[in-house]
Specification:
Elements (H helix, E strand, L loop, with lengths): L1 H20 L5 E5 L2 E2 L7 E2 H14 L1 E2 L2 H11 L6 E8 L2 H14 L3 E5 L1 H5 L5 H11 L6 E4 L2 E4 L4 H12 L4 H14 L17 H8 L3 E5 L12 H19 L6 E2 L10 H9 L5 E2 L17 E2 L4 H9 L1 H8 L8
Parallel strand pairs: 1-5, 1-12, 2-3, 4-5, 5-6, 6-9, 10-11
Antiparallel strand pairs: 7-8
Helix pairs in contact: 1-12, 2-4, 6-7, 6-8, 10-11
Length: 331
């Protein structure tokens, strides 16, 4: 009922009022996967095109690095600034989203996991999904680094259970857990990512960088930096910057914390991001702070769902965070 009232109020002029009230608060939008047609939780090409039209009509789109540079220069954000950010480095960004961004001349920031782009690995949570989708034995209850898992349960719920557990243990235990899962599923994990999970390549990134897309850092292997030893976290941050500079040239860049929840970064990690030369860094949640905390700017959900997208874009969610004094983290 509450959502329906908000949606109706938005259509009756509330969205434009929220845009006016939050015009000095940038909306940093967060996306992950895209598809040509409806498939799972991906944002479809048709939906994304509609969203780009709205952004072009009512807002000032820019890359995250240009937002950081503008704030650095002027002490405040440009009015009605919107930043489209996309995480991880999947090929579907290049195939589906990038052509639309180019057509509408909307800049964006693409955070890539450099080991994924290099072809050294594919993302561990996709490996878990692939194992569950292709397993040959449904009867086993197994233990994965301290977690009891019933493989006969719903695949999506089982995936969420395992991934949430793996996000709260260190890298070594996570790798051991994935190896245990592969054995239980009677499968060998492919060294090269299957088509549904493929990354972009460096040549595609070079092309996009020349056409309004900032290529930002997202570590080398996509661990939770808050659950990783500090020396390993520093290496993930610094090597990702070195890879980007090596393959794409030295450019001002920004950073995104993998998973991006409060437990996935620390003050020491934030300092390491700054020392590595990144100009700003973003989380994967929103609260009342928005861009008030250095190196942990908050993001709003970019979604296939029109209501959620409108709340994020026009500032309704930000107003709600302020009114409720909603705080997910103080750093």
């Amino acid at each position: 009922m509450k959502s329906a009232v908000i949606e109706l109020a938005g259509k009756l002029g509330g969205y434009q009022l929220a845009r006016l009230l939050t015009r000095k608060q940038p909306k940093i939008l967060m996306y992950h996967r895209f598809s040509a047609e409806k498939k799972g939780h991906e944002v479809t090409a048709a939906t994304f095109e509609q969203q780009l039209r709205l952004i072009k009509k009512y807002f000032q789109p820019m890359t995250l690095v240009n937002l950081a540079l503008a704030i650095q220069k002027n002490g405040t954000a440009p009015a009605n600034a919107v930043v489209i950010t996309v995480d991880d480095g999947y090929r579907d960004f290049y195939e589906v989203a990038y052509p639309l961004l180019k057509r509408y001349q909307v800049p964006a920031t693409f955070f890539v996991t450099t080991g994924f782009v290099n072809g050294d690995l594919w993302l561990w949570y996709d490996q878990v999904k692939w194992l569950l989708e292709n397993k040959t034995d449904n009867s086993k209850e197994i233990f994965l680094s301290g977690l009891s898992v019933d493989l006969s349960g719903d695949k999506e719920k089982t995936w969420s259970l395992i991934v949430n557990h793996f996000l709260n243990i260190d890298n070594t235990d996570r790798l051991n857990g994935i190896a245990q899962l592969a054995i239980a599923c009677n499968l060998e994990i492919p060294k090269i990512a299957p088509d549904d999970y493929k990354a972009v390549n460096w040549q595609q990134l070079k092309e996009m960088q020349l056409n309004g897309i900032e290529i930002g850092g997202h570590t080398v292997t996509h661990p939770s930096l808050g659950m990783t030893r500090l020396d390993e976290a520093i290496q993930e941050i610094e090597k990702s910057k070195l890879h980007l500079d090596q393959y794409l040239g030295e450019e001002p860049r920004t950073f995104c914390y993998p998973n991006g929840q409060p437990q996935d970064y620390t003050l020491e990690v934030k300092e390491s991001v700054k020392r590595a030369g990144y100009l700003a860094a973003v989380t994967a949640f929103s609260d009342r702070h928005n861009i008030n905390l250095d190196n942990s700017w908050r993001r709003f959900t970019g979604s296939e769902d029109n209501f959620q997208f409108s709340k994020s874009l026009f500032g309704v969610e930000h107003i709600g965070n302020l009114l409720r004094r909603h705080e997910r983290a103080s750093i």
